[in-house]
Amino acid sequence: MDLSHIQTEIDAWFLYSKLAEKEEDPIVADIFRQMSEIEFSHAQAFAEKMNVSIDLVSKPSWRAKTILRIGKLFGYEYILGTLLDTEKGLANAVMKQKKSMQMPVTGTEDAHVKILRNILDNDQKVSASQLSRFEKRHRSVGGNAIRAAVLGGNDGLVSNFSLVMGVAGASANQAGVMLAGSAGLLAGALSMALGEWISVKSSQELYENQMQLEMEELETNPEGERKELKLIYMAKGIPQDQAEKIVDDLLKDTKAAHEVLVKEELGINAEELKGSAMEAALSSFFLFAIGAIIPLIPFMFTSGMKAIVLSTVFSAFGLFLIGAAITLFTGRNVWFSGFRQVFFGLCAAAVTYGIGMLIGVSIGG
Hints:
- By secondary structure, the protein is an all-alpha fold.
- It has helices spanning 3-22, 26-49, 62-74, 77-100, 111-122, 128-138, 141-170, 174-220, 222-235, 240-250, 254-266, 277-293, 304-330, 334-364.
- The protein has two domains: 3-125, no CATH class; 141-205 and 277-364, no CATH class.
- It has 14 helices and no strands.
- 33% of the residues are buried.
């Protein structure tokens, strides 16, 4: 255990408290306050174990402050989505480490995620409609958009950087590198856009058909669906009488009942299906293109070894920023993540540059 563990708890305390301040629903706001208190108690326990004053480490990190700023731009749902993603990632890492060391997995590794789930399931003040709205909140569209932006830019940068270095290794001709890099940018961006459009459109069509079938079942056989809903909540550990009360409340709103059935039975989040396939395609196109143009910029103004060196510097800087941005989701050290991204990106470019040189020598010879 080190200070980073305490910082993780402090960041979670800070973000949950901000969610509580901004939440309009008093019941859900109370849930956030409870989570905030739990996270701070963990930080205090860690500090006592390490014999460190909690006052020395009670300030949120740059990562938490950045997540809060992004939340202000994209909606506070993003913050909760990031918190839960981080908790799940840490839980998986702990379980993986235990398995590698042949230590028993006790089931407490994902305790933070379970705590939130248990507060929601066991608090009798939380109605079915509030539970349904909360589910929408923690499936953050904003978080997915930021993650897609980072990964899309990374794909464009790494792939085109490798392509540009390969062509530059074979021939330092500025026109040839520009042609290959521009073609790589356009082809990659179009491929990403088309793939994203097909993926979103086909998923929407499949899930919409399943959702329509579920709605027809709810309208034609409400008693059967009522039993299904009751069993779903009982399977979560909720007593039968309380489960029946939740279901009775839920069935007063057919739309809310349908959303719960769709999510629990089909594993579909209806909110995520509202996105436009064309918007997703255009976003993928531009995100890939933004990353892909970085290694190409120096060749627009110069050529030869100078352009190759500048392209490498620009790309390394971009890779570091991408690695640093990834830590918003993983919670890992920014320097480690940034330089790891630079290392792998430069390795890929070095391989293609070497292959390009071999091909160039072979053709030239």
